[in-house]
Amino acid sequence: CARHAGVKIKQTTRFPLPKGYLDDVDACCVIGGDGTLLGVARESARRQVPIIGVNRGSLGFLTTFSADEARAHFDELLQGSFHIDRRSMLVCSTGPRSHDLALNDVLIKDEVNSRIVRLAVFADGELVTEYSCDGLIFSTATGSTAYNLSAGGPIIHPSAGVIAMTPICPHTLSNRAIIFRETVKLRVLNRSEGARLLVAMDGQRNLKVGVGSPVEISIAEQRLPLAQRVAYSHFAVVREKLQWTGNLVDNSH
Amino acid sequence: CARHAGVKIKQTTRFPLPKGYLDDVDACCVIGGDGTLLGVARESARRQVPIIGVNRGSLGFLTTFSADEARAHFDELLQGSFHIDRRSMLVCSTGPRSHDLALNDVLIKDEVNSRIVRLAVFADGELVTEYSCDGLIFSTATGSTAYNLSAGGPIIHPSAGVIAMTPICPHTLSNRAIIFRETVKLRVLNRSEGARLLVAMDGQRNLKVGVGSPVEISIAEQRLPLAQRVAYSHFAVVREKLQWTGNLVDNSH
Amino acid sequence: CARHAGVKIKQTTRFPLPKGYLDDVDACCVIGGDGTLLGVARESARRQVPIIGVNRGSLGFLTTFSADEARAHFDELLQGSFHIDRRSMLVCSTGPRSHDLALNDVLIKDEVNSRIVRLAVFADGELVTEYSCDGLIFSTATGSTAYNLSAGGPIIHPSAGVIAMTPICPHTLSNRAIIFRETVKLRVLNRSEGARLLVAMDGQRNLKVGVGSPVEISIAEQRLPLAQRVAYSHFAVVREKLQWTGNLVDNSH
Amino acid sequence: CARHAGVKIKQTTRFPLPKGYLDDVDACCVIGGDGTLLGVARESARRQVPIIGVNRGSLGFLTTFSADEARAHFDELLQGSFHIDRRSMLVCSTGPRSHDLALNDVLIKDEVNSRIVRLAVFADGELVTEYSCDGLIFSTATGSTAYNLSAGGPIIHPSAGVIAMTPICPHTLSNRAIIFRETVKLRVLNRSEGARLLVAMDGQRNLKVGVGSPVEISIAEQRLPLAQRVAYSHFAVVREKLQWTGNLVDNSH
After folding, report:
1. What is the β-pairing status of strands B98-102 and A82-95?
2. Is C191 in the same domain as C104?
3. How many domains does one find in chain A?
4. Residues D6, D7, D9, CA angle at the centre, nearest 5°?
5. pLDDT digits (tens, 9 = 90+) for D55-75
6. Which of A207, B36, B168, C191 could tie A199 with a disulfide, CB 3.0–4.6 Å?
7. Which residues of chain D neighbour B241 with C-beta distances below 8 Å?
8. Is there a single domain that holds both residue A182 and residue A75?
9. Does any domain span residue D23?
């Protein structure tokens, strides 16, 4: 039906997208789960091509259009009757020419499975603290309902451009999630002797980082243009996904 | 010694400060704990009079000068060798002519001790969710290390002007703390039948709010001018107060 | 239909049950929610009269028979085709002649709403610690999925006869829930100056306790005989009530 | 000085201990941290040789004698003026002839670093639930203050012989720690497609477990005989190690 409307279409099932794949494209329709959309986000942000996320199963945090909905309203979508939510992303640098974008989160842990990592974190040059933990999650507002939430971090509304840093199983029990302002420059130093770091972007792209190399994280200049229905309510999605409907614990006090 | 330096001084032990007490004052030195400083913050913010917080016991999050330090460097302080940290505050409205400022937090719970409260929260007119809980804490960055932290909320750097909303003992276990952007307008409706609300500002000033009256919370126009030493490091204070020094749990994995 | 089967019936809607109401009774069918059943548990435990909990709405942790199920299988129930789960209870003493039973939990907090309480806890005469918190919850395994869970405590299988002590909003962030063995004798001393305590049994019966009176808590001799269907699975109930069906957070890592 | 007292001594710095090393030994003095003691616990439990844990640095949860104390009271120790705390241990079976003891905990996760694992857990044949998480920690009371605590589990007094099962970063947010009774037989099935499991005992001994092999965990018959001073207070150690001294959060409410 899109073809009938005179729209030129190209499609792929290769992820991550080949570089330049979105160069001459006006919009990108991702059909799949949130994981699929994460695999396209980087390229979409670089070219500023809006993503329409269509979920064939249960709705996602990112893929908020159902297949039925997308089909029923496709003409309207083509005519632009949607809202573009410009989501902040993280840029993570692990060396002079090595940087990457993440829509949800950057995870830093020891290269060796199940080994504790020691990480010193600096915010705008000021020491935050030195962690002994299973890993550190740096999350955008968009990623706050993903890994960050499992690790005990807070939910962040997408309009708050902050970064959440949440430790996984920290040894110091008062090491809670920390919220930094949008413009913060974070710098992570590896304090584990002789251990390389694993740095994972959106749980999909993994880098190994040598002992002496700092990892730098901040909010990227590019934002992800994410198409939402005009009546989109972020908390309606959160309520459904996190099952906030009704009292789960039957307290009688 | 301040008198010798030609400074005019007035002092009081009455809290909260009488209205207008700071009218002709250039700076206000609070000697006591964080609780004492909270009792002065509202008046200080209204008049934009900087507070110097001096703690005679262990340092506080707000009273970051020790008595010795204040004495040793008093002349320098008088000459302005400090940094003014402008901390965001909450304004809470419970009716047409009833509004108040809070530096740390606004707590909303049932008027009756140990009774569950049902509260519907709207952010900029959008329903967030309806809580069944012991109470809701709305916290500034400054208050994030106080009641908010005890209730499971995150630590927020003072330069992030967000609001944290943290439920106390929520029935729905996925009801985590939520971070809202600085400009959000929050509105809380009482959904408990026939119950009045207790609204507490900074844990000090308690209001009773009738069944039909919404409570509105947002970041105030006024900020609190808080004097800090030039070399002040926020995370150094957090590390000391939360005892982030060393590994508390001796994990061997 | 119960009458047709030759069963003598008496019924009441008065709660808590008048003392002695269950004296000549073989079984007690409670129709309502978990709160209703809690109101009968004490009398049922004293007389060792089994309770059949029937829930007309959504199933509870305690009222695990649906109305349809109870109706369809009533004859079998009368003939004893159920299993009796003997749930441990707490006995709480607040003075020489003042003690009471609780099936779920005993809550101790300050008599004044929203005031912090200081409580010293001793286990078999050994100091555990001194808490500054909003309150302390002492929970049975049965109560572990109620208030205890909201406050961050663990889930306890009913066959483990332990006591969980969970602080509400503790100031010391490493003050986690503590699990004590079945035979422990707990003693709570009020360390708040001039403040009386509120002691609440199962969130229903509230006592005021004077400044110098210790509160003593241990597992009661009496257990609650709770009827369950023969194929009862405790974790099936927990999975349904806590919505453990499916992945709520869509982590892609 | 021990030699002077007519005590025969042998010593080693090899860990884990060679099998049979403790065969003709009356007591075993471990000098080091908790990790060192964990490396001896298995052999000590098999031969029922009491361990005296001496810590040269800051005290541990297990190594509760300071070097000074051990030196000053060595004669008394030799004469048996100590108390033997018999700590429960886990036995973990990963196949017909493959089983091992753990004093603190058994960790199960995906063999691949940073990959989510799906695990179905059965308690005495009853399905508990199916987890999607970073890993599952099975902890004794002794291990409850180690990895279990970092992951959000409760503190368990050593006299309570229960098992705590605590998920790491579970997707389902209501998946809290679960406490099982002492006699429970736990069975863990790998539900991740084509992934082997990593099973770690006390964070020291790692096994790889194939796709179809269940992991079985229960309380071991053998207990660890751990020597403690006569006036040993478990909570005194917990208070010191977890820094429960004083109010960390300065709430003024």
Report:
1. unpaired
2. yes
3. 2
4. 135
5. 988 889 999 899 888 888 878
6. A207
7. 248-250
8. no
9. no
Q: Do the Cβ atoms of A172 and B253 come within 8 Å? A: no
The verdict on C101 and C185 lying in the same domain is yes
pLDDT in tens, B143-196: 999 999 999 999 999 999 999 999 999 999 999 999 999 999 999 999 998 889
Query: Tokens 């002040």 label which residue?
Result: B232
Q: What residues form DSSP beta bridges with A240?
A: none
Nearest chain A residue to B175, by CA? A244
Structure tokens at C32: 């309502």
A150 contact C CB<8A: yes
> Considering CB atoms only, which of D145, D202, D250 is closest to B249?
D145
Distance CA C41, CA C57 (A): 20
Token pair for residue D108?
Answer: 């199960």
Question: Can you give the pLDDT at residue A168?
Answer: 98
- Residues of chain A contacting residue B116, judged by C-beta atoms under 8 Å apart: 251, 253
H-assigned helices in chain B: 34-47, 67-72, 74-78, 147-150, 234-241
Q: In this structure, are residues A150 and D169 in contact, taking their beta carbons and an 8 Å threshold?
A: yes
Q: Strand A178-180 to strand B155-156: parallel, antiparallel, or no bridges (unpaired)?
A: parallel
Whether residue C104 is found in the same domain as residue C202: yes
Q: Is C34 a catalytic residue?
A: yes
Q: Tokens at residue A230, please?
A: 């005009």
**Is A147 at the interface with chain C, CB within 8 A?**
yes
Residues A127 and A172 in one domain: yes
Domain residues for D50?
28-87+222-241
Up-side HSE of residue D74: CA atoms within 13 Å toward CB?
15
Query: ipTM of this predicted complex?
Result: 0.94
- Do C93 and C195 sit in the same domain of this protein? yes
Same structural domain, C83 and C176: no
C16 CB-contact burial (10 Å; exposed 0-12 / middle 13-18 / buried 19+): middle
Evaluate whether residue B32 is within a structural domain: no
Q: Flag whether A10 is in a domain.
A: no
Please list the helix, strand and coil fractions of chain D in percent, rounded to the nearest 5, in that order: 15, 40, 45
Tokens of B149: 């932290």
pLDDT tens column, C204-217 = 999 999 988 999 99
Same structural domain, A186 and A235: no
CATH number at residue D83: 3.40.50.10330
Closest among D79, D70, D75 to D30, alpha carbons compared: D70
Cβ of A173 within 8 Å of Cβ of B248? The answer is yes
The pLDDT of residue A247: 42
Question: What's the confidence (pLDDT) of residue D78?
Answer: 77
Q: Position D132: which residue type? A: S
Cross-chain Cβ contact A170/D151 below 8 Å? no
pLDDT (mean) for A199-215: 94
Phi, psi for C151 (deg, rounded to 5)? -85, 5
* Adjacency order of strands within the sheet including A205-209: A205-209, A197-201, A105-110, A135-139, A163-168, A178-180, B155-156
Q: What is the CATH number of the domain that holds A164?
A: 2.60.200.30
Q: Is residue C9 part of a domain?
A: no
Contact between B180 and A171 using a beta-carbon 8 Å cutoff: no
User: Would you call D253 exposed, middle or buried from its count of C-beta atoms within 10 A (0-12, 13-18, 19+)?
Assistant: buried
Residue A222, classified by CB atoms within 10 Å of its CB into exposed (0-12), middle (13-18) or buried (19+), is middle
Residues C90 and C96: their CA atoms lie apart, in Å, by 17
Beta bridge partners of D120: D130, D189
| Distance from C-alpha of C48 to C-alpha of C83, rounded to nearest angstrom | 15
